Amino acid sequence: MHGPENITSGGAAVDAAITSRRSIRKFLSTPVSRDQIEHILAVASRAPSGTNMQPWRVIVLGGDKKADVQAALMAAYNERAPGHDAEFKYYPAEFPDPYKARRRTVGWGLYGKLGIAKGEKERMFAQQGRNYVFFDAPVGLIFTIDRVLEIGSWLDYGMFIENIMVAARGHGLDTCPQVSFARYHKVLRDQLDIPDEQVVVCGMSVGYADPAAPENELVTEREPVDGFTRFLGL
Ligand SMILES: Cc1cc2nc3c(=O)[nH]c(=O)nc-3n(C[C@H](O)[C@H](O)[C@H](O)COP(=O)(O)O)c2cc1C
User: Fold this and answer.
1) Which of 94, 96, 130, 153 could form an S-S bond across to 55 if both were Cys, CB 3.0 to 4.6 Å?
2) Distance CA 214, CA 105 (A)
3) What whole-number distance in Å separates Cα of residue 34 and Cα of residue 8?
């Protein structure tokens, strides 16, 4: 079942599922079924985790419930009220290079595709707000983790999330992972009865990419392997 022959024969398909994944920021209204999501989550839950702790908890949003949650999130976003912050630090306060340069490249790459120029703050604000309607995707996922768990479990969590995105690709679906949701954890707690013991990690849009949308044309760069790897003895 898990012999090397399977790995070899499926290699190209696995590579394609991984390398064809991109963060999609405009989805078609084509529905995604509960069965599809359940299957992907079951596959993704084969992710490894330290001592098999499986730290992931997922809330799947669709239909009217998703619409209600989006409305509450958009209201909070458009109010521009202070007091909405993630409960953990995703980014450092200062970005040294090369991270700063990469971040700029992707930011301006996206705004460039959308024709948003430097200084067009309102258009940037509106585009960022599109996170909270799950970029029009039919399904939204919200991920939470038990507050008592440590950084190691967050590492496990990342593997689970990547598995979801790769498994989705294998079924022709597209995704966008979104830390933006962590910021509005109070709104999400209220809307989704998330207990205090759980921290909102991030969210994800799931659906079919709109092939006509300029924001979906963005293909981000990667360093070549020799830029981040040292081979020793091989
Ligand atoms: C954990 C995580 C959170 C992210 N949060 C957001 C987000 O809130 N909004 C967004 O548009 N993109 C978000 N992204 C997408 C990144 O910008 C994207 O992965 C990166 O630019 C590389 O592009 P690619 O995913 O198309 O390869 C997130 C990615 C990760 C891994």
Assistant:
1) 153
2) 17
3) 31
Distance (Å) of CA 176 to CA 17, 93, 129, 135, 168: 15, 24, 14, 9, 11
CA angle 149, 150, 155 (to 5 degrees): 105
3-state class (DSSP) for residue 146: strand
Atom of ligand 1 at shortest distance to CA of 24? 26
Reported in sequence order, the residue ranges of 85-137 that DSSP labels E, i.e. its strands, are none
Is any atom of ligand 1 closer than 6 Å to the C-beta of 191?
no
Q: Which two tokens stand for residue 155?
A: 């590492």
Tokens 């910021």, residue?
Answer: 183
Task: Tell me, in angstroms, the distance from the centre of ligand 1 to residue 234's CA.
Answer: 33
Interior angle at CA 135, CA 86 and CA 195, nearest 5: 35
What fold is seen in the domain 22-92+132-214? NADH Oxidase (3.40.109)
> For tokens 């995604």, what's the residue?
32
Residue-wise pLDDT tens digits, 132-166: 999 999 999 999 999 999 999 999 999 999 999 99
194 CB within 6 A, ligand 1: no
Residue 52 neighbours by CB distance under 10 Å: 7
> What does pTM read for this prediction?
0.96
Transcribe 10-68 into DSSP letters. THHHHHHHHHT--B---B-S----HHHHHHHHHHHTTS--GGG----EEEEEEHHHHHH
